[in-house]
Design goal:
This protein has 19 helices and 20 strands. The chain is α/β, with parallel strands linked by helices and about 525 residues long. It has three domains: about 100 residues, no CATH class; about 260 residues, Alpha-Beta Barrel (TIM Barrel), CATH 3.20.20; about 100 residues, PK beta-barrel domain-like (M1 Pyruvate Kinase, Domain 3). Helix 7 links the parallel strand 1 and strand 2. Helix 1 runs antiparallel to helix 5 and helix 7 crosses helix 8. The chain is globular, with a radius of gyration of 26 Å. The chain starts with 14 loop residues before the first helix and ends in a 7-residue tail after the last helix.
């Protein structure tokens, strides 16, 4: 249903008014180029073309374009909805055609069809930037797989490569450098033997905010538990460490205690802020706070209760956490990563300063050329995304990962579809690759059976440059299914645009008609 009250008759359409509105937008875009000229010149030469278009796009999206786009579509003109990669060219081309309809001449910054940042060249630049980051071997799409410890077995790695993996993800949250080194050796050897190159992506762990030990207090005795069953309305205490003296003043017969791996978050949290556990399966509100403990009222769980276990993630989406994005462990691991990786993934990135710090650490190790992927997994990172991208453009290679699992917890599942679209738009405007990550074909990889929703989700990923699968016993089946889906969808879709391949269902119907027009 259309939300705009617009009379779309060609006789009444105000072409003059439409032209004036577009001119206003064009002038604002040209102004931003002058205002941010220093920013554009500060990025790496690989990205100056990108930065120019990116800033133009950011300025464009400060306008509400819905009615203008609707009017342009009604005229059959190129609308603004696919202008991410070539903002100024698209607007000036529309103005040229509008003015021709009005019998006027339009003079843009460039001649009609002569814009350097145009539809075709921008697509080439996006492809170049993608291959510089992921490698020229990836073809149309990067298919990334998280390696389990089992990847120390060369035959397991061979199976992944043969099934379609062309980027291997090593998660620094697990295993150690000895295991990672064996994985790298296997990947290099299999690449040579199978004549199938595979880029190596190391994911920095970042600060690990997780549950640690669980206790139940009964009549003053602390009993360590393997899990705690939590239901809506329950009360738990999140503590920096096991400390019996803290709870003496709280008169509750059966107290449920959870300690955490990063006690500093308790200092940062505030009363009435939300808190989530285990990828958002359990939710609560901070009701009270003492120097070393938070009192949390559970507000969300499964209808019959949810089990909370150790080593499960904790999210505080409304809390400003004074934690370093690069931990001491990350900085230590960068020595190994700089020696072995093709790409480094930056977890928990939030601010421009975080990106600058990683760039400095890589430069200190002589790896200013190492590709960087910024993982967008929290509210702060999403809010700062334009600045993160522009800072990232000071590196030679850059990409963005949409960590949809963490984002769903941080922003709310209802907002995820909207946010992942916005991230895709910004990446396309910046002409940098976007990675579609988290739970892609998850049940297929883990159980061997997929849902229809999973297949649809995997099909939607073709609008990005790379898809990430997590490990599972049926990962080979998930890989083969994904590559089949992508090979089909690539014929119909490029980024947001349908390619309009001939439809066999339409051709079969037309050819089946005995007489033209008869049914």
């Amino acid at each position: 249903m259309c939300v705009f009250d617009i009379d779309m008759s060609s006789e009444q359409m105000d072409l003059e008014g439409l032209s004036e509105q577009l001119n206003e937008i064009r002038n604002a875009i040209l102004k931003v180029e002058l205002e941010y000229g220093e920013v554009i010149s500060s990025v790496h030469p690989n990205y100056q073309y990108n930065a120019l278009n990116f800033l133009r796009y950011l300025r464009l999206r400060t306008f509400d374009l819905r009615e203008i786009q609707w009017s342009l579509s009604a005229l059959g003109l190129s609308s603004l909805s696919h202008s991410e990669r070539h903002v100024l060219a698209n607007i000036e081309n529309i103005l040229y055609l509008l003015n021709a309809q009005l019998g006027k001449e339009f003079r843009g910054k460039y001649e009609f069809g002569k814009h350097p940042v145009n539809f075709i060249e921008s697509a080439n630049r996006l492809n170049e930037n993608t291959q510089r980051l992921f490698g020229k071997h990836i073809g149309q799409m990067g298919v990334m797989v998280t390696l389990p410890t089992q990847a120390t077995d060369i035959e397991y790695v061979r199976m992944l490569v043969r099934s379609g993996m062309n980027i291997a993800r090593i998660n620094c949250s697990h295993d150690d450098s000895e295991v990672w080194e064996q994985m790298v050796e296997n990947l290099r050897q299999v690449g040579v033997e199978e004549s199938r190159l595979c880029s190596i992506y190391f994911d920095l762990a970042g600060p690990k905010i997780r549950t640690d030990e669980l206790y139940r207090v009964k009549k003053g005795k602390w009993e360590k538990e393997k899990s705690l069953k939590l239901e809506s309305g329950d009360l738990i205490f999140l503590m920096k460490e096991k400390n019996k003296s803290i709870l003496r003043e709280v008169e509750i017969k059966k107290q449920k205690i959870v300690t955490c791996t990063l006690p500093a978050i308790i200092d940062d949290a505030k009363i009435q802020q939300s808190i989530w556990f285990d990828d958002g399966k359990i939710g609560g509100v901070i009701e009270d706070k003492w120097p070393d403990v938070l009192q949390v009222r559970i507000t969300k769980s499964a209808p019959t209760g949810s089990k909370l276990k150790p080593e499960k993630g904790i999210n505080l989406p409304e809390t400003h956490l004074n934690l370093p994005s690069l931990t001491d462990e990350d900085i230590h691991n960068l020595d190994f990563i700089a020696e072995h990786a093709d790409i480094v993934g930056f977890s928990f990135v939030r601010r421009v300063e975080d990106v600058a710090m990683l760039q400095e650490e890589l430069a200190n190790r002589g790896r200013h050329d190492l590709g960087i992927v910024l993982k967008i997994e929290n509210q702060e990172a999403f809010s700062n995304l334009p600045g993160l991208i522009l800072q990232g453009m000071k590196s030679e290679s850059l990409g963005i990962m949409t960590a949809r699992g963490d984002l769903a917890v941080e922003l709310g599942a209802e907002r995820l579809s909207e946010v992942q679209e916005q991230i895709m738009w910004l990446c396309e405007a910046a002409l940098i690759p976007n990675i579609w990550a988290t739970q892609v074909l998850e049940s297929l990889a883990k159980t061997g059976t997929s849902s229809r929703a999973e297949i649809t989700d995997a099909a939607m990923s073709v609008r990005t440059e790379c898809v990430m699968l997590n490990k599972g016993p049926y990962i080979d089946l998930a890989l083969k299914t994904l590559t089949d889906i992508l090979s089909r969808m690539e014929k119909h879709q490029h980024k947001k645009q349908a390619t309009l391949r001939k439809l066999n269902v339409a051709e079969d119907f037309i050819e089946s008609l005995p007489v033209a027009g008869a049914i």
